[in-house]
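Moderator note: this is an archived Q&A kept for reference. The question asked for a predicted structure of one protein chain; the sequence and the answer are reproduced below.
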Amino acid sequence: MINKLFNVMAENTDSANVAVNLSGSTPEMMFIISLGFTLLISLLMAVTYRLSHNALSYNRKFNIALVMLAFISTVLLDLVQSNPLFSLGVLGSLSICRIRMNTKDPRDLGFVFWALSIGIASATGAYFAGTMCAVVLFILLTVTGKRLKRSNSCMVVVRGENPQIESVQKVFHQIHGVSVQSKNIFEDTFELVYELHVKEKEEERLLKRLNTLEGIHGVNILAPETQAA
């Protein structure tokens, strides 16, 4: 019993020493640690954003802006915690500022809140909560993103001269998962609209084959689920 008691006391002493060491860290060291945590989790968020979006809905600039937002929120909240005057200034600026952005994908709004939560977790020292949230969101968005890529369809609009309409139709008939949506034939030109349920690689091959045909004025790809900004 006495040995067990001494062991428990030793463990409590070690944990207390660790707590003292952490609490005794300088504000500069804690700030560097929070920035490092923000860097790691924001990079995971950027990878998740890339994996969960296809080539049409992915926005590289928006992905970079998410990483910037995570760092800015970390610095901002650190200043708010260390200085009450800054907190009053932040509250005043937020009351007169209006943030407005157009997103192509409804999930982008969730990524914005994720970036803000990274800054909050880093500035408050809630590293475990921030890490667990990042891991869960990474798994969830990656799995659902792959399923959306498989189920997503795109519209292909082909315009060209009338003598090439049969050649274009033969190209589309050789691909599985293609259906005609509309066919417009004018005096000298035509316009064909197809709906595709194919993979990205096969889609790129289709575009290359259409571009090799003569008399094609243009090939446009539209994503029905993607809203224009």
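Archived answer notes: Helices lie at 2-23, 27-51, 60-82, 84-96, 107-124, 127-151, 165-173, 200-212.
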